[in-house]
Design a protein that fits this description.
Length: 281
């Protein structure tokens, strides 16, 4: 029997966050302890441990109330890759989706997509992760208002329309984290958030009525956060790509949004100009 076949898969509890972060660091991913804590509190996180009790793989399901769930945090330790463990972890997620009659959604790297496709996931849109440096102020002469904690419930209403499900609890969680900043235009047609993460600040979601309005929000968010910044943009937004290039950003990697049981995105994709990150959608 292969070592991965002997691995014990169980639900992870908060005490396992430190072990999960070891996998995050090894994989070079951007999640923090606060991200793991949110998934454990509001979703289901599976963990596989070897015979010695070491955490060697994870996978998570985060349900949303509109009948779908995000599959994410699928990480396998380098020492145990290409032995079928990733597929075992995903099968746990798929079984949970079927048990709860949920549509599965995820944002996959090209390598990950090769694992998800045989399980029935199909690509429904493409995304690009842009990486650059924040903190350089560009005055576009546009009125941008910083968000306050009292604004979270209000922005959650149009976030729900764009995303396809309410995310009040998640938005409040992001806002409660040290260093999170948010902006909206004076006419309140959209908003953008940027939060500190492990390697780089994550810019997103950005929700707006038009691509030009989204660029104004991106400008404000990038200027507000010195240091490395990641922003994950649907590939259809060419003007945003051109804008980010002028700011010195470059595409780090592509993602594929994939779905199990549906052939189109939820919500109103025409309003979503940057996603919250591949772990959240």
């Amino acid at each position: 029997m292969a070592p991965t076949e002997q691995a014990v898969i169980q639900h992870l509890e908060p005490l396992a966050i430190a072990d999960a972060l070891v996998l995050t660091v090894e994989a070079g991913w951007n999640q923090t302890a606060e991200d793991w804590a949110f998934f454990i509190a509001h979703g289901t996180v599976f963990g596989a441990r070897d015979a010695g009790g070491k955490l060697i793989a994870t996978a998570a399901v985060l349900p949303y109330s509109a009948g779908f769930a995000w599959v994410s945090l699928v990480i396998v330790a380098k020492s145990h890759r290409r032995q079928g463990l990733g597929t075992r972890m995903l099968n746990q997620c798929v079984s949970l989706l079927r048990e709860r009659a949920l549509v599965g959604m995820l944002d996959a790297t090209p390598a990950g997509a090769k694992v998800y496709a045989p399980l029935g996931f199909r690509t429904i849109m493409g995304l690009n992760r842009w990486e650059g440096m924040g903190g350089a102020v560009v005055d576009r002469g546009e009125p941008v208002r910083p968000l306050a904690s009292s604004d979270v419930d209000r922005i959650a209403r149009f976030d729900a329309i764009a995303f396809g499900a309410p995310r009040n609890t998640l938005l409040a969680n992001w806002w409660s984290r040290a260093g999170t900043r948010g902006f909206e235009l004076a006419d309140e047609i959209g908003y953008g958030l940027i939060r500190r993460s492990r390697i780089a600040s994550q810019l997103g979601p950005v929700v707006a009525a038009t691509e030009s309005s989204a660029i104004v929000l991106l400008d404000a968010a990038i200027a507000s956060m010195p240091g490395a910044v990641f922003v994950d943009v649907p590939e259809q937004w060419a003007d945003i790509g051109a804008y980010l290039s002028t700011r010195g950003f470059a595409v780090q990697r592509p993602f594929q949004r994939m779905a199990l049981g549906i052939d189109r995105p939820y919500g109103e994709p025409a309003r979503v100009f940057a996603i919250a990150g591949p772990e959240y959608g």
